[in-house]
Each structure stands twice: as C-alpha cells, then as structure tokens.
C-alpha cells in the first residue's frame, strides 16, 4: 500500500474573479482528518493583483494562504507556478469559479489510497443560470461524466484533480503555455503524466460545482465544446499510436460509426425528447471532432 500523504497543497490558478471568495469559503468548510496538513496556494493571474483582496474578503480561513504573482493571462503559466511553489506531497487543483463539498478532499484521498493511484479526477457539476430551458438542464451538456469510481483513464482535466507533486517534478511535467489561452493544456499535461506510467483514476463522489455562464448556455457553445474536446482527445490518442496505422484506422473508423449513430438516432428522436437528442448530439459532435483531427483542421474556437 502507498503511505498516506503528510500534506496537501490546494492550488488555484485565479484571474481574480469575485467567485474566488465563494471558492475559498467552501474550502474553509472542508472536513479533514486532524493529521493532514493543508495549505492553499493561489497563482494571481489577474490584471491588477486583485487576488489578495479576494483572500481578505474570504477570511477567516483555517489554512495558510499563499499568493504567487503571475499576471501572464495564461492558465498554463499560472498552474506551473503552483507546481513550482507547492510544498505539499500532493497538489489538489480547483478553479476559482468552483466550490467544493465538505468531503471533497477526503473523497479524493480515499480513492487515491484505495486504487493506489498517482492522480485522481473528480466530477464538476454545472449550475445552470435561472431561465435555462428544462430540456437543457436535463441533458446537462456541460457536465463531463468520467465514469464509475476507480475507472482508469488516459487523460484528465484540471478543475477537480489530486496528483502526486513528486511525479511532476521528477519527470519535468508542466502545462504547455502554448495552450494556456486556447484550452487543452490540462489534457496535454495529464496525457504526459499517463505516458510516464502514472496510475490515473476517476472517482464520482468527490464533488465540485461551478456556475455555467449564460453566454455558454447555447447550442453553438455546446457544439464547439464537443468538437474541440473530441479533436484534442484524438490528437493525443492518435499521437500515442502514431506507428500503429491499423489502430489509428480503427480509432477513426469507430469515430465515424459513433458519429453516424448518435446524430442519426438523435435526429429521429428530436421531435419527442430534446434532452435526449442533445445528449446524443454531444456524443456525435465529439466524434466529429475526432475526424477534424484526421483532416488536420484547426480546433474549434471557444468563447
């Protein structure tokens, strides 16, 4: 069995949004074992060093809070600053527009211990704005279902993650600044972590929430998000098997079949169940995104 950690650094790459106060307030309510040492590290990537004011507004906090100035307008640079400055055996990433449940960190730690993992990803549940159509809320298109607790994965995301800092330091793993303004930096980072042998699993009980901005609750954004997700996933998976043409052909053939089924069935049920149609459409668009990589098209833009 892997020895339990002595300390965890909760790392936040922040643009100084007001939501950071809610994030910190939720972290203050964490239920933790007495022997676990926890601190909070915030990379201030805001324009005018607004993070210290947000931290002051969230006081009192039961943890030491350290702020590292970054001001690069680049989430990769901010997250790399967190890796460099963290002191915990483990780093837990959470975004500044998210808030956590009181058992969030203990659930991540429990999954890491049970599955002897180097990295654990938890779910992020969107809170849709008032007035969002019911069929969109039921379809929940901004939620990524990582699967059952203990499922092994090859890639991950940065918004609800626990990983061993020593692994990143030992292998020189860093978030790619070239992707820090366009997205995909977390997929790239955790794909590289898997490539060096990290055991990466998901758990569905370490819950984080985030607000869904009104500007992103529309079909155009859902489609672009799914296309981009599929394309970035294909880029890393196909790159991993670059010298296995049969495996690559099967991957893209599967994408064609999955896209055709999802979009075809979705078109049939659209008049009767728009929520189910949207869930199928998201799967179809994601697989179309994989094919965009085959055609070497530029990734879909995101707002």
Provide an overview of this structure.
The protein has 303 residues and is α/β, with parallel strands linked by helices. It folds into two domains: 7-214, Spore Coat Polysaccharide Biosynthesis Protein SpsA, Chain A, CATH 3.90.550.10; 219-294. Helix content is 44%, strand content 16%. It has helices at residues 19-28, 51-58, 75-85, 104-114, 134-139, 165-171, 185-195, 219-240, 245-269, 274-294, and strands at residues 7-14, 37-44, 64-69, 90-94, 98-100, 119-121, 124-127, 160-164, 200-202, 208-211. The strands form two sheets. A seven-stranded mixed beta sheet has the order 3-2-1-4-8-6-9. Strands 5-10-7 form a three-stranded mixed beta sheet. α2 links the parallel β2 (37-44) and β3 (64-69). The termini are far apart.
